Amino acid sequence: TAGYHAVRGAINALIKKLSLDYGPAGMRVNGVALNTIIKDSNINFFEKNQHLPQQIVQHTPLRSMGTARQIASVAYALTTKSFDYVTGNIVTADGGLSIVNQENIFNCQL
């Protein structure tokens, strides 16, 4: 919906603004963008509708759906010293799905 996309844009802008405001104090602000992932709250849905994750996997360059644990790992990595010069970024953790032509995904039989 339009509201969902407006909020996503606002969150991305907020991450950039906070990184400018708090960067001089040595604080880093980053975000993690994700796509459809498997998590406790939707696993039963995907098990009942197995064609949906199969379609997502088919169109995802890494040929898998992400898990909550994988997204948490990305978020954690951003807090480590390995990323101490990174701020104001939104890291996309979606197996490459966001770079696929969306028309190809939605023209398939879901």
Strand content: 5-15%
Strand tally is 4
Helix content: 40-55%
Mean pLDDT: 91
Order of helices and strands: HEEHHEHEH
| Large-scale geometry | elongated
User: What's the tally of helices?
Assistant: 5
Calculate the terminal CA-CA distance, rounded to whole Å.
19 Å
Structural class: mainly alpha
Tell me the Rg in angstroms: 16 Å
Could you describe the largest sheet, including whether it forms a barrel? 2 strands, parallel
Strand order of the largest sheet: 1-4
* Weakly predicted, low-confidence segments: none
Walkthrough of the structure:
- The protein is mainly alpha-helical and 110 residues long.
- Helices cover 47% and strands 11% of the residues.
- The protein has five helices and four strands; from the N terminus they run αββααβαβα.
- Strands 1-4 form a two-stranded parallel ribbon.
- The longest helix is centred in the first third of the chain and has 21 residues, at 2-22.
- The mean pLDDT is 91.
